């Protein structure tokens, strides 16, 4: 009679990577629904195009690297990357934007660095930066929220705008934008709330003047508030399911909050406050879905706290003093670069060893 | 003698390429490779300086005390850079303006002082001249490859502005491969140069790896041993 002998731990978490990734996708559903409600059909098409491109690129890469494409695709990580990218870009961006971004994310950022588990940068964010730098016009053309403009675009026209850049009535994205925004203001191009603040401050308006514009609701950016609340809800689901630990979201939001409070105390009429920073742009998406990527984030718990706090502070600094309106992608990439150093200095001591000896 | 030249050529163009392997002189490499014309212009200028400085350093190598050799090399290189700069100012003024500060900056190109120190100060002048030519050619080829990559991706053209380098007739050299509604700005911006450089180095390593694998696979034929003595 023989016994199976194995060293501890004996009680395993039975969750596989594919199950984790499926749950992450599931947790994104509330946020996607909120974006669908406020920004229309575009998000659905972007998700479909990104998903399809990601699966194709992933299979081709796996075949080129002489690995089994079926096994590789079953971990769903490519789809998570595609989804994160698709929800970050403007819903009516032309199809080639998302296709180029997804291919770059999968082929260059993920597979050239060695595939899943080896990429030093977050693939979705690296692709986002590539797109933002290469196609600044397309990447900042957000329509005003449907609920604000009352100008909803049907699923067919959305698809046409994405694929051929014209609706069935022959309007381009810019014209649709002009119509949608024209009902609200005279010839002011609508932007995301953070963009709006940046433009207004550059034009010499004060913060309170900027905040009185209709894009800002009572609390934070109109529509964006609810998108962020929905992602917060999805993130809490992930926490409850123990897909992610509390360290990264808490440290990121905490650092961002502290920075925002200090900033608004120091210059109340030049730097947007806490509510704007936490509930505009992609803050919640970043805190719960992007920065928590287990591959490109720091490893130990102490490391995670440092890493996420760094992301939070960087988001604040780049948003307030940088050239681009939102800063999630840049902040995450810069923090990814610091991860090896953070890991080096936060290595936990082994159980039973004297502390501090490495 | 011919094997010495073969080694020098192989080293300069591939095995020990200043840009791809030694990773020297990356500043101009990354800064001016927006178009093929700029890349070719700077490449040729660097090559001329490299050949000239290699010959001179080699000729004076026995009279220069070891302690002050670096300042001497720098003065020699600076002399040739000034020659090239004034020549370009006179004959290819448009390119001179386009390259701007990067022509005087050839002085600081570590590939040049590296060759002076590593090769020219130890070898005779004709070998040094050939070494400079090959190293310069290798550097120029990488510049042109990177320039072509970035120009195609960023503007969809090749040899745009060739008239700056070659004169008016070269205006027709410009090839419009395709035209974009929206250019891929990344390829024109500095990050694109870094990415493109990374791809070039990766491509070289990939080719080397495949070559090595092929060599390893090929069976090594055992030499037939002819016994001429009896077994003791």
Percent strand of chain A: under 5%
- The structure class of chain A reads mainly alpha
Helix-strand string of chain A: HHHHHHHHHHHHHHHHHHH
Q: What is the helix content of chain A?
A: 55-70%
The SS-based structural class of chain B is: mainly alpha
| Major sheet strand order of chain B | 1-2
Classify the helix fraction of chain B into a percent range. Answer: 55-70%
C-alpha termini separation of chain A? 42 Å
In oligomeric terms, what are we looking at? heterodimer
Sheet of most strands of chain B: 2 strands, antiparallel
Low-confidence stretches of chain B: none
In sequence order, what are the helices and strands of chain B, one letter per element? HHHHHHHEHEHH
Number of helices of chain A: 19
SS strand fraction of chain B: under 5%
Q: How many separate structural domains of chain A?
A: 2
Number of strands of chain A: 0
Describe this structure in words.
Chain A is an all-alpha fold. Chain A has two domains: 15-186, no CATH class; 191-338, no CATH class. Chain A contains 19 helices and no strands. In chain A, helix 7 (123-134) packs across helix 19 (328-345). The radius of gyration of chain A is 21 Å and the shape is globular. The model of chain A is unreliable at 185-189 (pLDDT under 50). Chain B is mainly α. Chain B has one domain. Chain B has ten helices and two strands, in the order H-H-H-H-H-H-H-E-H-E-H-H. Chain B has a two-stranded antiparallel sheet with strand order 1-2. The longest helix of chain B has 31 residues, at 125-155. Chain A binds chain B through residues 112, 130, 133-138, and chain B through 182, 184-187, 189, 191, 202. Chain A: Its cofactor is FMN. Chain A: The chain crosses the membrane at residues 20-38, 95-113, 125-143, 215-239, 246-267, 273-292, 304-321. Chain A: It is an enzyme of class 7 (translocase). Chain A: Keywords: Cell inner membrane, Cell membrane, Electron transport, Flavoprotein, FMN, Membrane, Phosphoprotein, Translocase, Transmembrane, Transmembrane helix, Transport. Chain A: Pfam families: NQR2_RnfD_RnfE (PF03116).
